[in-house]
Amino acid sequence: MTVTTPPADPVAPVPSAEEVARLLTALQSEGLRVEVPLAARAGGAGPADAGMLYIEGVQVTVPTTASYVEASPYALRGEDDGSWAVYEGSERLASAALAPRPKYYDLTTADGIPYWQIALLHLDSVASTVLQTCAYWGNDDQCTFCGIGVTLANGRTIAKKTPAMLAEVALAARDLDGAVDATLTTGSTATPDRGAMYVGRCGQAVKEAAGLPVQVQFEPPADLDVIDRVADMGIDSVGIHVETFDPQVLARVAPGKARWGIEAYFSAWERAVAAFGPGQVSTYVILGMGEDEKTTIDGCKRAIDMGVYPFIVPLRPVPGSLMQDLLPPPREAVEAVYRQVVPYLAKKGMSSAGVTAGCARCQACSGMGAFERSASDGGLRDGRTALPLFVGA
Ligand code: SF4
Hints:
By secondary structure, the chain is an alpha/beta fold. It folds into two domains: 17-98, no CATH class; 103-385, Aldolase class I (TIM Barrel), CATH 3.20.20.70.
C-alpha cells in the first residue's frame, strides 16, 4: 500500500477544544483509514477493533479495521518531519501520535504465558477481562454487542487470569510503560455475586502489588452486600453497566442482563455510590442500538442525580459479535446526546477528571471527555466561539 506523504504545513493551525471534540466524535462514528500498522484489538469486552492513538494530545480509540472504515473521509498520514496527522482529503485537521507497542508485551510469566495474553495496555490503562467466559455467551442470553468469546476462541488470551498473574503484569505495565490505573472486567458468572468477588480480588492484588488505582466492572449482584465487600477490598471505582436505558432495546440486545431489569441497576448504583462515593460509579451507555434519545438522556440524568457517571459511547460493532454487520451511529446523533448530558454533569459537579480509575477516567472510547474540556474552556480557544451546549433541567 502506498503511504501518501503530504508536505508538512509549517503553520498548521491548532484546532480548538471544540473542534477536537467534534473530530473525535466523527472518527468514532466513521473510523480512521490508516496507511501504517496501528496498535489495535479485534475482539474482547471494551474497545475492540480499536486503533489507539493520540489526537492533539488527547488519547482516543477509533475504529480502524472494520470494513465500513474504508468509506471514512478521515485518514491518518505521515508528514515530512516524521510526525502524523489526521486529514480529510487534502485538509490537515489535527496532529496525531501513535501509541507505541508496550514494552511489557515482550515479557512472559515463569509458566511461559505472554504478559499481553493476561492484560493489555489501553493507552495509559492496564486492562484485562479476568474471566474471559460468561454465563450468557453462546446461548440466547448473549449480549449482541459483546465479543468476550471472540478473543478466547482465537487464542489471543487465556480463559482465567489469577490475581497473582494480574499483579505481576500490572507492575510491569506501570514500571515499563507508565500505566496509571487498572481496568478489570469480567464475564458474568452463574453465582449470586455474578463474578464481582473474583474481579474484586484481582483488583485488590493489583492494587497491593502496583499501587495503581483500580476500577472493577461487574453485573448487579443478587445480594447487594457484595458491593460493600468489594469496597472493603480497597477498590477505587466500579463499573456496573446497564448499556442502554431503553428497556425494549436492552431486552433485544442483552436479554440476560434485561432479566434483572433496569431498576436493578439503579438499586446497585445507589449501594455502590454509598460505598465508593459520588463519581466513582459508572455505567456504559451505548448509542446506536435503536434506543430512544429522550429515554437515554432521562436515564443519564437520573444516574447523574445519584452520583453515577454515565459513560456514553457509540456502538463499535465487534467483528465476530452478533452485531458485527451493524454500523456505528452517525456523529450528529452521538454529539446531540453529549451536548445534553455533559452540561448536566457539570451542573451537578461531576466530570471525568473526578473519576479515579477505569473507562470513565480514561475516556478514550468516547468523545464525552473532550466535550467536557471544551465546555470547561468556556467553549473558547484560539479566539473562536464554540457551538453552544444545551443545558437542560
Ligand atoms: S454480560 Fe454480556 S457484555 Fe458482559 S461479558 Fe457477558 S455477554 Fe459480554
